[in-house]
User: Which sequence fits this backbone?
């Protein structure tokens, strides 16, 4: 009986760990009619974050990816105007544990239920590309991930998210 309770407890604990930690979610959307081969230079128009340190980190991460694809950053007048928005918000999650998994009683599981509320910080990054001539949005990448208390880990998450965003960039027509 003790072994069975211990197994149930370990399964609940494993569920808690997987439930609280979310993987990075990255999505990309683009204008399928856009001619990506006509774009070679870009300039930053605006990066909005609550913290200028993160603005610099976002710029560096995106620059690294675009320059690896052969694009060149210019101070102004590029083929593409880039905008980025970085936000952090708190998110609540609930996790319920059931004790008394020894059997069914009266049509339900016996024992007690304990619900714990967890607060997590979630970071969201949106990178948008506009054709500088037409002012039309033609590409947007979005990423979200739970943030750690350690800034260095969050920089790593940022770099991974941006790398995923630009993995298949430029898209094939």
Assistant:
């Amino acid at each position: 009986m003790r072994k069975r309770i211990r197994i149930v407890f370990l399964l609940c604990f494993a569920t808690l760990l997987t439930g609280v930690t979310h993987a990075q979610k990255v999505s990309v959307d683009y204008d399928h009619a856009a001619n990506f081969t006509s774009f070679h230079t870009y300039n930053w128009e605006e990066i909005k974050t609550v913290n200028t340190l993160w603005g610099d980190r976002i710029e560096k991460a995106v620059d690294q990816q675009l320059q690896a694809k052969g694009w060149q950053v210019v101070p102004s007048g590029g083929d593409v105007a880039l905008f980025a928005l970085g936000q952090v918000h708190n998110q609540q999650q609930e996790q319920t544990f059931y004790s008394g998994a020894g059997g069914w009683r009266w049509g339900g599981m016996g024992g007690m239920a304990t619900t714990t509320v967890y607060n997590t910080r979630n970071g969201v990054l949106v990178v948008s590309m506009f054709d500088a001539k037409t002012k039309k949005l033609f590409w947007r990448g979005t990423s979200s991930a739970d943030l750690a208390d350690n800034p260095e880990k969050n920089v790593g998450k940022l770099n991974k998210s941006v790398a995923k965003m630009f993995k298949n960039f430029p898209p094939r027509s």
Notes: The mean pLDDT is 84. The first strand starts at residue 25 and ends at 30. The chain is about 30% helix and 40% strand.
